[in-house]
Amino acid sequence: MNLYSIYLKSSTQHPTPTMKQIIILFGPPGAGKGTQSELLSDKMGLYNFETSKILEKNFREAENLPENSEERFVKIDGEKFDILNEKENWKNGKLCSPPYVAYIVINEIKKLSKEENNLILSGSPRTIYEVEKIAPVLEELYGKENIKIILIEIKPEETIFRNSHRKICELMRHSILFNDETENLTICPLDGSKLVKREGLDDPETIKVRLKEYTERTYPIFDYFEKNGFKIEKVNGEQPIADVFKDILNFVK
Ligand SMILES: [Zn+2]
To answer: How many Å separate Cα 208 from the centre of its chain?
Structure first.
């Protein structure tokens, strides 16, 4: 069974979530966080909160502003952040400034928690700063016992291989991981749009930067979670997509 047969099978069932919960997926680039959050969102009717999409939207808006527009800047705790500088970092595989990301994520989550009870986060928090800001907000909105933290583990070589072969679709930016089943695909099996390489972010040099950022800046987050009494469930991300998904479901049901 591959991703798309799971997708088709599960797309008919949208159980109404009975309790408030938030699932946070972690893992190095290429671990399959995007794919697994799509599946989870579909199977369990959770809202898929993708930080990268929100950032990309902000970047696009900032680029279209007149040159001297003040809207290009965000002021947080007295410090000014240039959205176009943030875009440069992101494009080169560096993480965006933690205060900027935390600000955006917290605003969105507060908005969403009013409309949607259940969320999946797969792109944040990514630094200690962010987790220290974001986790207390999540705890207040959802309760610690309803926050499920899942770490999808893959080896560094696997990160590099997968990302340098990854394609995304033009329409919805569905991420298509490379394997025997997807090797010759040219259109997105979910919406029929063209598959393209993700410009910049998946270049080999950029992937190395992203991996380094993950190891040095994201990985220490797990210390924070452990010290603060959150439980982290680990899943082997090198299994077939369907098996990774099954393991995750075991933890979140
Ligand atoms: Zn697609």
So the answer is: 18
Alpha helices by DSSP H, 143-240:
156-165, 204-213, 221-227
Rounded Cα distance between 97 and 83, Å, is 10
Ion ligand 1, residues whose Cβ is below 5 A away? 169, 172, 174, 188, 190-191
pLDDT in tens, 32-61: 898 899 899 999 989 999 898 899 999 999
Give the number of other CB atoms < 10 A from CB of residue 15.
8
Domain spans of the chain, in order of start: 3-243
121 or 93: whose pLDDT is higher? 121
| Coarse DSSP helix, strand, coil percentages of the chain, rounded to the nearest 5 percent | 50, 15, 35
What's the pLDDT at 20? 82
Which tops the pLDDT comparison, 242 or 12?
242
Quick one: CA dihedral 56, 61, 64, 68, positive or negative? negative
Residue 9 vs residues 2, 3, 163, 212, 239: alpha-carbon distances, Å: 11, 10, 27, 37, 20
| Cα(187) to centroid(ligand 1), Å | 8
The residue type found at 40 is L
In this structure, whether the domain defined by 3-243 belongs to CATH 3.40.50.300 is answered with: yes
